[in-house]
Write a structure and sequence with these properties.
This protein is mainly α. It has 12 helices and 7 strands. The structure holds benzoyl coenzyme A. The site of benzoyl coenzyme A has 25 residues, from helix 2, helix 5 and helix 9.
């Protein structure tokens, strides 16, 4: 019998889904594989394909103990198809099919919507690898370089996860979509990635940390919602993806925190108390706190757009059809069908923002976005505690949800980060106060220099408190070739 927790490394594609007995899907994946490797070689980390990287690879899917660390050349990473263990007799937890057995096959009437969810999710994964492909060249340490590459190979594995679902459950159309996922390119005018934030540049390491803090957390919220799905293969796939996602957000939160720490240390050492003494602080070779805030403003607002419109019939349909649940649906105490329920949605009305009760079903994107904001604020609070400990008078703050938006109710209005309305000219003339200007970008870029001496770090970032896999500070996380 197949041990659902063990990963079969005998087939060319590691998996715990019994691929060796599923010739049709194995063949489809084997056919897709060379195109995938071409994509990785063309769009994956630039200049490091021959390097030996100390990576973790999944060897099982049980919670804890699933990872094995070793030196690997990235093109030889064992990407594979891994699903969380099957829960016998699982019942659907929400929507009109609540309490029915979870589906092991795609219900015909939901084929199109499920396929769309898999394609959108799948499209973001290679996009992030493309956005980050040049960052190895300016890594502030081997520790950071290794974390970047770990994030990259795992995002690429998440692409595999969605491609498996598309090829196994969606026939010819699914195979065509799997090809499409290798065809689109982040930021390309003619064949862009599907969602806005995944076509933006990640120009420097501070952006990378902000992206992994803010945008990967949207990933977490969306995956959590899909992990509740009545379509069991999607639920199991996303549940395993979430175990990998946790490290990505750790890279983001601790990365920002280490940048902040280095700035605080340098300010204290130089006797600078005013965090807005930007020229003096930059002269120390560290990133001033207001610039860190601007980067946070940008990445938070871009990530909010990933939740779609506040009022969405797509979201209502996905929930009602038991395909995409709420964050922690199984922990919520209500009817799980949202019959007659309402949810307060923040709306611009006559120049004011007011909370208006809307049917909870159509307000699901808004609810998930609120859950996201709550979680995101947790990290901001931790950064502020760090400021306090350092005795520096500066407070990080998330901007209003109305600030710098391109999707939803606020996409046609302009506001300050505090949420005060502005006309377009005022916004454009003041936007450099709130979002990274080209000068800010040039300054941060000027600090980005590769550091490859084991145990050494660039001057704008503090070392981490502990190493990966309990390694000592001078461990050679990447052996450059
Ligand atoms: N950009 O009813 P609406 C991750 C489109 S990140 C461009 O408002 P809906 C990761 C929408 O497609 C998580 N277009 O929204 C993180 C629709 O188009 P059609 C990725 C957008 O459908 C870091 C129209 O506007 N996973 O994993 O309720 C590194 C009206 O849509 C955008 C998912 O998102 C946008 N921002 O919600 C690596 C989960 N927003 O159909 C990875 C799957 C909306 O009219 N996706 N549109 O042509 C979904 O659940 C939903 O599709 C969305 C949108 C939440 C994205």
């Amino acid at each position: 019998m197949l041990d659902a927790n063990a990963v079969d490394y005998e087939t060319s594609i590691p998996n715990n889904v019994g691929l060796s007995n599923d010739r049709r899907v194995l063949k489809a994946l084997e056919k897709w594989h060379p195109g995938y490797l071409d994509w990785w070689n063309e769009m994956g980390p630039e200049g490091f394909q021959e390097s030996l990287v100390y990576l973790r690879t999944a060897v099982g899917v049980e919670p804890g103990g699933w990872a094995k660390f070793d030196y690997v050349r990235m093109p030889e990473y064992r990407w594979g198809v891994l699903l969380a263990p099957k829960e016998e007799d699982r019942l659907i937890g929400f929507g009109q099919h609540k309490d029915q057995p979870a589906w092991q096959e795609v219900p015909g009437e939901y084929r199109a919507i499920l396929q769309r969810l898999c394609v959108i999710q799948g499209d973001t994964e290679p996009a992030s690898v493309e956005q980050q492909r040049h960052l190895g060249k300016t890594a502030p340490s081997l520790y950071d370089m290794r974390n970047l590459f770990q994030v990259n190979v795992e995002e690429a594995r998440h692409l595999w996860a969605m491609v498996y679902l598309l090829q196994k459950y969606f026939g010819k159309e699914g195979r065509a979509e799997a090809e499409g996922l290798l065809f689109r390119r982040s930021g390309d005018d003619d064949k862009p990635r599907m969602l806005g934030a995944f076509n933006e540049a990640t120009p420097d390491w501070l952006s990378f940390f902000m992206f992994t803090y803010f945008t990967d957390r949207d990933g977490k919220m969306q995956l959590e919602s899909l992990a509740q799905s009545g379509f069991d293969p999607l639920a199991r796939t996303t549940r395993f993806m979430l175990t990998e996602e946790a490290h990505h957000m750790f890279v983001g939160e601790s990365g920002v925190s280490r940048v902040i720490q280095r700035t605080c240390d340098a300010m204290k050492q130089a006797g600078i108390e005013n965090p807005f003494d930007i020229d003096k602080i930059r002269a120390l070779g560290v990133i001033d706190l207001p610039t860190i805030q601007k980067k946070a403003n940008l990445h938070y607002s871009l990530s909010l757009d990933l939740f779609g419109s506040e009022i969405s019939t797509n979201a209502a349909t996905a929930f009602n059809n038991s395909l995409k649940g709420r964050y922690k649906e199984d922990k919520i105490e209500d009817d799980h069908q949202l019959i007659n329920a309402t949810y307060p949605v923040l709306k611009p009305v006559d120049g004011q923002f007011v909370l208006v009760d809307e049917p909870a079903l159509t307000a699901l994107n808004m609810r998930l976005r609120d859950d996201y904001t709550r979680e995101t604020n947790g990290g901001v609070r931790r950064w502020n505690r760090q400021m306090n400990k350092n005795g520096i008078d500066f407070e990080f703050k998330l901007p209003s949800v109305s600030f710098n938006r391109s999707i939803g109710l606020f996409s046609n209005i302009h506001t300050t980060p505090e949420g005060e309305a502005l006309n377009q000219d005022e916004f454009l003339s003041r936007k450099d106060e709130w979002l990274p200007s080209s000068d800010d970008g040039a300054f941060v870029s000027s600090l980005m220099e590769q550091v490859t001496e084991p145990g050494s770090f660039a001057g704008w970032i503090s070392p981490p408190r502990i190493g990966i896999d309990n390694k000592t500070g001078d461990f050679e996380y990447v052996r450059l070739q």
